[in-house]
Amino acid sequence: MYLNEAEDENDGAGNDMGMERVFEELNTLKGTVDALETRLKETVDSALSREEGLRAAMDVMAGEFKKYVDGKLQRFDEVVTDCLLRRDQRWTEELKRIQSKSRMSWGPVSYSTPSIPAHSSHRRLSADETCPTVPPAAARPPIRMEFPQFGESRNSSDVTDFVEQCENFLTLRPLSDIELMGTLNTVLKGPARSWWLAARSKISNWTDFRKSFLEAFLPMDYQAEIEDQLRTNVQAPGQCLRDFAYDHRALCLKWRPDMTEADMVRRILNACNPRLASGLRGTVTTVEQLVKVGSLIEKDWSNTKDYWSRVQQSHPPKRVGKKNDHGPNRSSGGDVATALGEPSLLVMPVYLRGSKADAVLDSGCTYSLMSHSLWKAIKKDGEILASSEIPKFVMANGQENKALGKATLLFCLHDFHGMLGVHVLADDNLCMPLLLGLDFMSIKSNAALESQATFSELLRCRTNPHCHSPPAGSARGGAATAAEVVQCLD
After folding, report:
1. How many other C-beta atoms lie within 10 A of the C-beta of residue 10?
2. Residues near 218 by Cβ (< 8 Å), separated by ≥ 6?
3. Mean of pLDDT values over 84-112
4. Within a 10 A sphere around the Cβ of 447, how many other Cβ atoms?
5. For residue 44, what pLDDT band results from cuts at 50, 70 and 90?
6. pLDDT at 312
7. Residue ranges of region Disordered (predicted)?
8. What is the pLDDT of residues 335-358, one digit of tens each?
9. pLDDT, tens digit (0-9, with 9 covering 90-100), for 253-264
10. Predicted model pTM
11. Which of 113, 117, 137 lies closest to 126, judged by CA?
């Protein structure tokens, strides 16, 4: 019993010593952890301070680099500016030198005896052997021009012509502002000189003079005057299309300098010969094309009379005797009548989308027309007509019929292929399934005529070369006879 109590005391003392060691180790571990926390905090603070220092250094370096780049750019601008100034100065000196040579070329050629040094072994030239000294600018013959003058004219065209002539002179013979002001003192006469004496103190160059001169001598309604001239200007009989087109274009540009090419073409076609305009509409887009194609058509017109005279000589009309009402014998008076046949329609085989159709060439029809039944026969599945830009068509009987729509088809005539826009009308409004109008002729006016078969159809009406009255029922005049086609091209 006493032994057990002693063992318990020993065990309790051993446990106390173990707990003390544990606490000591825990305290040691706590101190170590605290030391680690302190070092970690110091490390983080050091890293943050180092990052702030790097950022500050980078900001300083960026500012210095920006200043360096700005200084280099400024220096580059100064160098480029100095270079351009030196170039302008060199060009100015060269221009003055050229102008001085140009003015020297206006004076007479001077002759002088070249000086010879006293110690030279060459003999002195006599008076007969003097050689001329020609300025370098005189090697090329100068253009002789006089500055234009302006007097007491009251026409607006004279005012604009004077300004244009002055600009042409200054283009060939540039003058300085001082020289120009002095020249204007001598070329202006009458009321123009009186105006110049009062206005020259406010003018220092050509731009100011041009603006002030036009404001002083052109009427306030000058644009309206040009517009009236443009409205009343039409092609005169016997005037060729080339001269009229160029004059009308110049008038258009004088009225509105920014006028487009399409607008000028439209105005020229509206003012030229209607017969000529009908063959050019929709085929030309520029004035140059209009002049080129129109000149060819005018040439064809001039050759038409010669052509028909040759046809009548080679194929004279048949003459038959007139029968006597009282018997089979002919009258003694020898009455002769010309046998006139029924005018035949010019039927042409045309292939539309692979289908053959007999088309009638109608010189009195402005647009090509197609019956609705023919359209249904050649149209594709689900294909619909586009809207027609022509609201109504005036027929030969005076009635107005509305188009059902418009279609653009690929047609084949002999060896020629092309796209043709046709307007579809109801079957009751057309006497033919397909009428080819002037728009078809304008696409390829020579395609059908160059074919021998088609040309023989044109010569079929050789008994009377004049057009007959077209039958009723076709658009704007009816179907064309063979002679009408040639008359349309005339």
Report:
1. 10
2. 156, 159, 160
3. 73
4. 17
5. very high
6. 78
7. 117-141, 309-337
8. 444 444 445 567 778 888 777 888
9. 988 888 999 999
10. 0.36
11. 113
Q: What angle do CA 205, 210, 214 make, to 5 degrees?
A: 155
Owner of token pair 């020297």: 104
> Would you put residue 131 in left (φ > 0), alpha (ψ -120 to 50) or beta?
beta
- Residue 186's alpha-carbon distances to 151, 162, 172, 177, 342, in angstroms, are 11, 14, 20, 15, 78
Find where tokens 């019956």 sit.
371
Residue 448 in tokens: 């059908």
Closest to 372 in 3D by CA, of 395, 406, 345, 410: 406
The alpha carbon of residue 423 and the mean position of all alpha carbons in its chain are separated, in whole angstroms, by 30
Max mean pLDDT among 17-21, 311-315, 467-471, 479-483 falls in 17-21
Q: Give the chain as a 3 state SS string.
A: CHHHHHHHHHHHHHHHHHHHHHHHHHHHHHHHHHHHHHHHHHHHHHHHHHHHHHHHHHHHHHHHHHHHHHHHHHHHHHHHHHHHHHHHHHHHHHHHHHHHHHHHCCCCCCECCCCCCCCCCCCCCCHHHCCECCCHHHHCCCCCCCCCCECCCCCHHHHHHHHHHHHHHHHHCCCCHHHHHHHHHHHECCHHHHHHHHHHHHCCCHHHHHHHHHHHHCCCCHHHHHHHHHHHCCCCCCCCHHHHHHHHHHHHHHHCCCCCHHHHHHHHHHHCCHHHHHHHCCCCCCHHHHHHHHHHHHHHHHHHHHHHHHHHHHCCCCEEECECCCCCCECCCCCEEECCCCCCECEEEEEECCEEEEEEECCCCCCEEEEHHHHHHHCCCCCCCECCCCCCEEECCCCEECCCEEEEEEEEECCEEEEEEEEEECHHHCCCCEEECHHHHHHCCCCCCCCHHHHHHHCCCCCCCCCCCCCCCCECCCCCEHHHHHHHHC
Q: At 102, is the pLDDT very low, low, confident or very high (cuts 50, 70, 90)?
A: low
